[in-house]
Each structure stands twice: as structure tokens, then as C-alpha cells.
Amino acid sequence: MSISISTHVLDTGRGKPAAGVEVELFREGDLVASGRTDADGRIGGLADGLEPGDYRLAFRPPSEFFRRVELEITLVEGHYHVPLLVSPYSCASYRGS
How many other β-carbons are positioned within 10 Å of the β-carbon of residue 45? Predict the structure, then answer.
């Protein structure tokens, strides 16, 4: 069973991808993977070969209000794409494809 995760951060306040955003993936308090978004706001392969279970995905977005956004997610099998949409005073996420 192969599990992988990617992400994408969009600065909806500016209408552009958010480059250079620090993203960390944790499992049971341990850092599993980390990276920074590229010029298109993406980290195409944040982590591969993950075990099924609960994870915490932490973003440090370009927002004056949100200094850190954390999502608790459950990974079972396959590929997961978890985007973050952020503006100065709002944020949202969803499971992408």
C-alpha cells in the first residue's frame, strides 16, 4: 500500500500562488517531512511511502492574521493532495485530486 501527499498554497487575497511557504507534516508529534512551496505555490511530493494513520499538516502562510494553520488528516491509501487557500483574514482547505 503506497501513500503519498502533495500540497498547494494559494494567496487568494492577491490572486496568486504563495511561494516560499513552509509546510511540515507530523505523525504522533514527530516531523515526517517538510518543505517550502515553489514559485507556483506547490510542493509536488511532500512525502511518499507513508504508513496509514493520522497526520498533522502545518502551514506558515503569508497572512498578517494566520501565523500557522494546522490540519489534522487521516491517510488510508493512495495519493492525497491537500491545498490551502489563504487571504489576510480567512483560510480554507479541501482534499484535492
Answer: 13
